[in-house]
Amino acid sequence: MPCSLCSADAPLAPYAVSGGPDGAVAEICNTCLGQIEGDLDAPHWRCLSGAMWSTEPGVQVLAVRLLGRLSRHDWARDLADQLWLDDETRAWVENVAAESAHRDSNGVVLKAGDTVVLIKDLPVKGAGFTAKRGTAVRGISLVSDNPDHIEGRVDGQRIVILTRFVKKK
């Protein structure tokens, strides 16, 4: 049986898809599993063009989440725009997204690629500088497993920023 996401003929492991019916799993290979839990290699995930049409709702939800994490790529946004989900599966995606959304200091939902402004001087540990209040951080990335953290570049350094210290521009 091939991987539910990339169709690789490799050993599979069950991956629990949260937020839906109990026992919702996708059978995925170690390559996909490693990337889901870490950094995504965008070229590998072009396979989502097939996985997003799976008859398994858990696989579809996982594909939507991955496309969201890859939204800085035009091809991923195009695939997400093409996707059709039945009402129950769409509700699953939207409920989980609303619960785990990254929000700025004013409660505004942040998306990957947004520009935010720092509302406080922030000392950057390990880099030896302070990110000044009013600094614009363009093209943020969302930390997938923590809705309180985003990543962005300040003074050429990629740093993790707490969402409570930013506002969406």
TrEMBL record:
Superkingdom as given in the UniProt entry: Bacteria
Start and end residues of each PhnA protein N-terminal proteobacterial domain: 3-37
Database matches in Pfam families: YjdM (PF03831)
Name of protein: PhnA domain-containing protein
Taxonomic placement: Bacteria, Pseudomonadati, Pseudomonadota, Alphaproteobacteria, Rhodobacterales
